Amino acid sequence: MHIKIATLVFLLLSACSPSTPVWTAPEQSWENFKVHFETRPDTLQHGMNEFLIFVNRQGKKHIPDLLVKIQINDDRMQQAMPDGALGIYRRALYVHDKKIDHLHVQLTFHGKQGDLFFALAPDDKKITTH
Q1: CATH number for the 22-124 domain, one of 2.130.10, 2.60.40, 2.40.50, 3.30.70?
Q2: Which of 55, 106, 43 is nearest to 76 (CA)?
Q3: Least trusted range by pLDDT, from 24-28, 60-64, 73-77, 87-91
Q4: How is the chain split into domains, by residue range?
Q5: pLDDT at residue 30 above 60?
Q6: SS3 (DSSP) at 110
Q7: What pLDDT, on the 0 to 100 scale, is given for residue 127?
Q8: DSSP secondary-structure letter at 122?
Q9: Which of 26, 43, 45, 125 is buried most, with the most CB atoms less than 10 Å from its CB?
Q10: pTM, 2 dp
Q11: 35 exposed, middle or buried (CB, 10 Å; 0-12, 13-18, 19+)?
Q12: pLDDT level of residue 84 (50, 70, 90 thresholds)
């Protein structure tokens, strides 16, 4: 019986995970905020993609008075909308070419403004094979 349950749990977990590994940009910091992002779909595609910006401060997910704006390259800056009190901000943006585009995240908190820039794909020039 325990083997059947363990097998069922394994199958459910493996069905929910992506079939291919997904590259993610490293987390960045501004002031005492930690910021990273995910996309939907998980693998970026040419065209519209949803960006989920995760912001936390000393382990706290909800940060009142935080304004998050994002843009791809020099496209128009757009406000990312908070997803409840989870510390997640969402916005769909148009990706032109994930190998050369970058995500600009602008944080505004109590009159201070910070800018973070994330690659959308790994830099192939920095990847070495052995």
Answers
A1: 2.60.40
A2: 106
A3: 60-64
A4: 22-124
A5: yes
A6: coil
A7: 45
A8: -
A9: 43
A10: 0.78
A11: buried
A12: confident
| Phi, psi torsion values for 5, nearest 5 degrees | -65, -45
- Tens digit of each residue's pLDDT (9 = 90 or more) over 39-83: 999 999 999 999 999 999 887 777 889 999 999 999 999 999 999
- At residue 126's C-alpha, the angle toward residues 105 and 50, to 5°, is 30
Q: Position 55: which residue type?
A: V
Burial 90-120 (b: 16+ CB within 10 A, else e): ebebebeebeebebbbbbebeeeeeebebeb
Q: In the predicted model, what is the mean pLDDT of the chain?
A: 86
Beta strand spans in 14-111 (E): 28-30, 33-40, 47-57, 66-72, 78-79, 81-82, 88-95, 102-109
Phi, psi of 14 (to 5 degrees): -70, -30
18: preceding bond cis by omega (within 30 degrees)? no
As a whole number of Å, the end-to-end CA separation of the chain is: 46
Q: What is the mean pLDDT of residues 116-123?
A: 93
